[in-house]
Design a protein that fits this description.
Elements lengths: L4 H15 L12 E6 L4 E5 L12 H11 L5 E7 L8 H8 L6 E5 L5 E6 H4 L13
Parallel strand pairs: 3-4
Antiparallel strand pairs: 1-2, 1-3, 4-5
The structure holds tetrahydrodeoxyuridine.
The site of tetrahydrodeoxyuridine has 13 residues, from α2.
Length: 136
């Protein structure tokens, strides 16, 4: 079930807050993400850039990796805040989809205005997933 409007508002606030801690001196495009686990716990992530550009990590994946490292693997929703409402990149969509395609994705801009509210499977249809691997 999708989170309530109040829960979504809290997620956006948390994403706005962590966005202020992004390390984005090269792009000057800070991103904040707040991921709601099924337990009710919220995991925050910000983008962390590097002078060796490709080693940069996105906010969404930092939030997922933090959650999984804390033992949570089932998610209800993720709020992503960017300056202008830019949507999650393909790599982040793929990483999120590993843990379920029903997660609600909310994208807001720095004022908190929602630009996108949809389920992950709409953002990454026919995703490659664990079911595609033939494991013996
Ligand atoms: N970025 C994210 O954090 N999430 C995305 O989904 C798209 C891009 C970051 C990476 C880089 O630090 C900056 O935004 C510009 O690409």
């Amino acid at each position: 079930m999708d989170p309530s409007d109040a829960a979504i508002a809290e997620l956006i606030q948390r994403a706005q807050a962590v966005r202020r801690r992004a390390y984005a001196p090269y792009s000057n495009y800070p991103v904040g993400a707040a991921l709601l686990g099924r337990s009710g716990q919220i995991y925050e992530g910000a983008n962390v850039e590097n002078a060796a550009y490709p080693t940069t990590m996105c906010a969404e994946r930092n939030a997922v990796f933090r959650a999984v490292s804390d033992g949570e693997r089932a998610f209800e929703a993720i709020a992503v805040v960017t300056e202008n409402g830019g949507a999650p990149c393909g790599a982040c969509r793929q990483v999120l989809s590993e843990f379920g395609s029903e997660v609600l994705v909310i994208v807001a801009d720095s004022t908190g205005k929602i630009h996108l509210k949809t389920h992950l499977h709409k953002l990454i249809p026919h995703a490659f997933g664990p079911q595609d691997l033939v494991l013996s």
